[in-house]
Amino acid sequence: MKRFSWFEILLIVVVTSTSLFAALSDAQNLSMRWFVRDDAYYYFKVAQNISEGHGSTFDGINQTNGYHPLWLWICVPIFALARFDLVLPLRILFLVMSGLSVATGILLYRLIGRVFVPAIGAIAAIYWVFSTDVLERVYQQGLETGIAAFSIVLFIYKLYYFERSWRNNPVTKKQLATLGILAILVTFSRLDLVFFAAMAGIWIVFRRHPMRYFVPLDIVAITVTVLLGFIIRVSFDEYLKYSNAAVTMIAISLVVKIIGAFLFGLYQHPYAFTRIKMAKSLILFGLSTAGLTGILMTVVTPLANFEGFPRTIIVYDFVLTTLVFGFTRYAALGLKSDIRNTHHEVSPIRQIAENWKYWLADGLTYFGILGGAMSLYMIWNKAAFGTSSPVSGQIKRWWGSLSGKVYGGSAQTPLTFFGIDYLGESNTWHPVSSILGYWAEIVYKFGILDVWRYLIILTLFAAFFYIVLMTNKNFAKNAIVKLGIIPIFCGAWIQVLSYHVTGYSAFKEWYWISQLVTVVLVLSLIVGILFKIIQNQKLALQFLWLATAGTFLVMVSSYWGFVQHKMPYNHWAANEPYNDLAAFLEEHTDPGSIIGMTGGGNAGYFITDRTVINMDGLINSHEYFELLQNREAGAFLAEIGMDYILANQTLLDQLPYKRQFSPYIRWMNLRYGGKELVRYTTDIQE
Length: 686
What we know:
Helix content is 65%, strand content 4%. It has 686 residues and is mostly helical.
């Protein structure tokens, strides 16, 4: 095992000592001040039930798969201890999350430090480990985000070594299999990270061809241009009526345009083209692929009974596709670093003849492992739970398709839809998006139009980034490759779009973990390039280490203050309940009762001698989800012997529930917060 450096030991010591201080503090701190998210307790209670032999169930009645599998598997041995003490697993979990944080920080330090200099890697690691922003978003909630971040960075770290290896030595099946297994780890940590795993597969398989750079970018470009075409044509407010047609057009476009780009030579090395020749190829490519896509959509639309397919989208598709494909090609051409470096054009047929065996063999190894694991997972889910994917995701897509906005509804603005918003749960590229959004708000004071002010700031940032790359082209290109920025950036953006393209409700800020890793890598890249162009490297390095020391002192002080404030000693009386809601329910319900709640994760874990059933369906069965859709869930809960409901009556009267529980409710005039505790009975009221 590689020895730890002094910096890594320092990280471990500071984090371990702080974590032990917090984990051993008052028990109520863990439940009332640190791990407070309902969603985390969904994992905890299911893991406890699995460890006690009750199966994959939150309530002991309904079997559920509403979770990401890897984190649940990790939680099972931890929450097996809940049979002895409900808080003991939370103490251990605190240490586990802290361990994941410092392990991720060490990997970032090693990766970025090798690509640039150790001081830049140290700054990135310090930010990751000691930023209270990262702490709250990734680790404090007790969710799958910690293992997801670690899995992503570990995969990129291994990609770095793979990148160094394949250029000098033949690639072995063992190397590809290892990367395939790591891709499974990434995907099972958060299932929507399969997009990153797929982009990485393209990056690996086509490693000796320009397709490795362009295909991931083209996949994003095709998806964005199709969606933008629909929104321009039918308006953003009407988009969801045409979402099925849009998804179909994206699928068709991916096939038609990627094949078309290959046949028109757009996957040749850009340096083989003159600017005029590139423009001609782009126009011919855009015309032919937009036309073919339009013909296919015209045929498919009546067969699939879509709402419609506006023909003018074909025109928008041609213009947008040509512009975006042209942007990536000319940007690559601009990064040409040696005017003497020439590349000869090779016909597409010859490229296939020379490479297809290698592409097929490597693709079967990597994607065979990843696809095989995903297929087994889906088959097992279908057999065990009656559905091949987590029910929680299906329910949120259903919520997004409804007219009611109780759970927020689908994306409300184009900025959110395209994953570039800077506010709230849809703030995908935090902290950069937050900073740029703040600047946009300042610009607004000078009278620039609403959405456009932010788009202008984004464009300026993109231009600044490109100018930085241009200052040292060779170094910049090598660093982008070594950091795996293209596959993680493209995978992260497609992940965001996958939520909004068909409508998805109640997305949360902790979904955007690959985006946070991308931001750290890109900012490190900017600092690394700026450091490289400084003439006096020795003096610059001294300054960097001084900045590192200052950053460490400031951020550790803030980190320690945050933890100390959240996790005090002797703050709670010994008899204080671990959860106020569970204590309220125990006081006002009978032992053995079955209690329904929308949410209910915290109460379900801490309550004794009672059962909490999740009524919104996120951690319930697929059968219950179908009953909710058919407005039959009320009768189902009555049949299984539901005794009480704690919920907001106004919420139950609206979609997605629409009063389907009302006939079974008897009022008790008991309230907790904004919710009411009511009797639930089979004696139906008309």
